[in-house]
Write a structure and sequence with these properties.
Radius of gyration: 24 Å
Largest sheet: none
Strand content: under 5%
Number of domains: 3
Helix content: over 70%
Order of helices and strands: HHHHHHHHHHHHHHHHHHHHHHHH
Amino acid sequence: MNYISLLFFVLLALVVLFYYVLPKKAQWIVLLSGSLIFYAYASYVALPVLILETLAVFFLVKRMEKGSNKKGPAFAAIALIVLVLILLMYVPALWRSTLFSGGIISKLIAPLGISYYTLMMISYVVDVYRGTVAAENNFARLLLFALYFPSITQGPMNRYKDLAPQFCESHSFDRRKAFLGLMRFAYGAFKKLVVANRVAAFISAVNSNEKAAGVFVLMDLILFMLQLYSDFSGCADMAIGMSWILGIDLPENFHHPYLSRSVSEYWRRWHLTLGAWLKDYIYYPLTMSPLAKKYIRSGKGSKKGRIKLVSCIAFFVLWMVMGIWHGTGIMFVFMGLQYAAAFIVTYLLEPVSKRFAKDHPKLEANGLWKFWQRVRTIFLLWPVFLNVSTPAKLGNFVTRIFTSFHAEKLFDGGLLRFDLSALQWILLLIGFLTILIVSNIEERKGEHIFEIVLRQKLWIRILIYWFAVIMILLSLSVQNTEFIYAQY
């Protein structure tokens, strides 16, 4: 069930209606019912799998909390969560046969949002094991945390300690927050419909045309970065906006990542909830493990060198997990290697970079230099491996870029042969510039654009609202594709 569909709007409207009309003590039940309906529609076969898995984790964690042996139940719970992920996501992709290519197994894979569910449930188990949160006593509330419909498909990735307590609170209708939520949902829909879907149409046309000139192939690879951000952050905006309407706060997932001037800054701005998860449950456990501490305390080489080696190993494991989390296939391994290399090299060169910045303050303040740093960072982390499915496809793309570029085709009408008319390209450019302007305003002001809009004069607000509505209406004719990260 796509977030931008009549059926989903009906479901959301009914959830909001019953959420505020029924007694406040029933609000979490309304959310659970809406989440179950959402999943049942997406895949009635998949729903029992998630319910049974959550039930097993519920009992294992309760046993872990009450028993003297915590490691056994904790290990069993995490092993179960990972096993289900492997069986539903990795085994069918690695073993293509009649058994796995059709029937029940194929229906279980796509709609689950299994990767997000997996990481959220692992964090719940680990947090209870560490004693940072208490185990949930109500299975239905844990199920709501696992299935909360605005965010389970594509994030943001929630933590039990942040989200579950909000389900236990009573929420009165807040007109201002609900309107902010509506605006944020609309902005997410703007990103998806006006920008992401149009880029998706162009990319799909180029990918299906084996004779497309290299200039269009290069545009395909570059524009995918715009599609990925607009699609992914747009979905996060919609999830957060829906939750604001319900009086619930979800964590931010993006902070203008394409304005980053370094690799490390980029990962402090992109997919924030995944980055925080990787840091808390992989990086810190590895660098603070007894084995790592023992090695650092050993007398072999300099202590700084040993610390850097441990950090580099942790970074490598972290980014490989990130790559594999995205899916199966060698391209995801390559993506993990790409990000691991970029981050490790940046980490090792950080002292040099800081010294250079200190020695050249005027250059660091130069606008052109800042622009170059942002462009350099984007292309170091160019998500080409998410866009190209196989090494052969990547090789074909690279070959066409270097052997049949044909830049002149940009000016002979060739650009209009890839499912987008001149008007569609103009609307795409307007949408891109809108996102760029909004990002710069939010970066400069340090607050959401929605708060800024509400402070404007009435006629300015009306113009902004009508601009968004008209742009969205003009984009309804473009095919509405599934969200990219919904498959991960």
